[in-house]
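Here is the promised in-class demo. Please do not try to memorize the tokens; focus on the logic of going from shape to residues.
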């Protein structure tokens, strides 16, 4: 099983979803800090559907936080933080009306829900110092492939959304993998075994990452350090299509050999550039960009607006600065929609967008809704049951809005937070969806780890439309199918989806 070294884009935003971040200066908690009762946070808190326990204690220098990764059979130290202030706690914790529940959100999240935690009277026995398995870097740690394998398998067995989606027998995967454990001697080999185990699931939000976890998963992903990453998706996207096309044109077999990779990468860059040039060929006004160039817009004939959103995170210097990402997205939308306010229809192009931060997708959606709107609902798997369903409602943005006819363009690459954005808007009477059914990977990626330096992510959440539809794996269906950037379209220098959108918007 081969890994590639790159930034783990499939789990960048989700890996930190339950981690405190004391470095941010944005206070987005509903409760003002002045009335935030930090003493109510002290204690032990559990979210079984997310495999997490937090323990908050008070010290002379503030508050300490210890996070544990837990299964029914194991407990590991996760993120440890010291000297947290009341302001730090208030940025990520929301108090409930009862003493036995809190909500933990990523710093900067206001619209996107966090995870509900219930108070425990004491740590489970597995999490005590005498029984907890040491992680790499702690005293007493020893590389134990069997123990790590069991943690990995148990986490998926208890929390993964649905093995039936791919027809995977997870117990059979267990038995087959056990036969290989006897020859596993290194972390690299163990990570390769994990990659082999998740391949049949064909879920792009299942991710294996191997790197230095001494400061936690977030620190690794937000650093310049190299790490190995593996994931596999069900649907071929633009890159896969171009790869197959390149191999066919050159009479090559897949997978490509290392010596053939450079030629393909050059061809891919050429085809991406050509696709963008074709799109820009429809512009009758200057191209405008914002949010680190991930938002772009122009007008095309006859008086139709075009808004391209390349991704829903990463506009700031840090991949995990949700508040700044949201602010920059808000600014880009206010500017673009002001300049496009007089168009007779709007195309929102999400065909290159493979996701990002949920807070950003909800922020974007608010600019296109006329009144309080049920965007979608979500819940998490809890072994043989589920957490209570949470309905996500949005109020319209106080900034610039566009409420005229809209066509959203999607492709098999449109995934994760981008799909949630489509889910939020598709049922509005003025919205149509054209292109290809989306990727079908909705769940936030739940981060976990084993005792060695291997972290992993998995899908544990169900996203439902306001009408209760579940599009995991199959993707959001389109109102009208149009393939994205086929060889024929590129040779003709045409974009059939844009052309069809203009026809619909001018009828």
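The designed amino acids, position by position:
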């Amino acid at each position: 099983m081969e890994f590639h070294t790159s930034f783990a884009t499939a789990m960048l935003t989700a890996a930190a979803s339950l981690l405190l971040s004391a470095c941010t200066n944005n206070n987005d908690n509903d409760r003002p800090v002045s009335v935030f009762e930090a003493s109510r946070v002290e204690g032990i808190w559990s979210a079984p559907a997310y495999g997490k326990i937090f323990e908050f204690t008070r010290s002379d220098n503030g508050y300490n936080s210890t996070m544990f990764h837990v299964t029914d059979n194991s407990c590991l130290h996760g993120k440890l933080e010291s000297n947290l202030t009341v302001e730090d706690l208030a940025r990520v914790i929301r108090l409930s009306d009862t003493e036995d529940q809190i909500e933990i959100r990523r710093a900067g999240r206001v619209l996107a829900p966090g995870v509900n935690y219930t108070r425990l009277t004491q740590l489970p026995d597995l999490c005590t110092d005498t029984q907890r398995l040491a992680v790499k870097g702690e005293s007493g740690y020893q590389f134990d492939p069997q123990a790590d394998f069991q943690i990995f398998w148990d986490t998926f067995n208890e929390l993964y959304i649905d093995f039936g989606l791919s027809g995977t027998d997870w117990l059979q995967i267990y038995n087959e993998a056990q036969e290989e454990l006897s020859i596993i001697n290194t972390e690299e080999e163990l990570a390769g075994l994990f990659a082999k185990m998740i391949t049949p699931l064909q879920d792009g939000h299942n991710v294996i990452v191997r790197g230095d976890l001494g400061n936690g998963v977030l620190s690794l992903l937000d650093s310049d350090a190299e790490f190995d990453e593996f994931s596999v998706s069900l649907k071929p996207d633009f890159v896969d299509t171009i790869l197959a096309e390149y191999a066919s044109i050159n009479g090559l077999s897949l997978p490509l050999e290392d010596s053939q990779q450079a030629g393909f990468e050059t061809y891919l860059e050429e085809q991406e550039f050509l696709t963008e040039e074709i799109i820009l060929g429809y512009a009758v006004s200057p191209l405008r960009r914002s949010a680190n160039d991930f938002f772009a817009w122009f007008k095309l004939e006859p008086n139709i607006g075009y808004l391209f959103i390349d991704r829903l995170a990463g506009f700031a210097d840090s991949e995990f600065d949700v508040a700044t990402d949201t602010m920059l997205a808000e600014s880009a939308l206010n500017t673009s929609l002001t300049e496009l306010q007089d168009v007779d229809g709007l195309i929102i192009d999400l065909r290159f967008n493979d996701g990002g931060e949920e807070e950003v997708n909800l922020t974007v959606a608010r600019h296109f809704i006329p009144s309080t709107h049920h965007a979608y609902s979500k819940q998490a798997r809890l072994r043989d049951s589920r957490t209570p369903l949470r309905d996500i409602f949005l109020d319209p943005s106080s900034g610039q809005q566009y409420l005229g006819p809209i066509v959203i363009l999607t492709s098999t690459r449109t995934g994760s937070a981008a799909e949630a954005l489509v889910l939020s808007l598709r049922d509005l009477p003025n919205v149509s969806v054209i292109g290809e059914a989306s990727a079908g990977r909705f769940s936030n990626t739940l981060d976990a780890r084993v005792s060695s330096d291997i972290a992993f992510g998995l899908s544990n959440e169900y996203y439902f439309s306001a009408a209760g539809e579940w599009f995991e794996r199959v993707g959001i269906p389109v109102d009208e199918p149009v393939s994205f950037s086929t060889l024929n379209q590129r040779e003709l220098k045409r974009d059939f989806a844009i052309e069809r959108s203009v026809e619909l918007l001018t009828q």
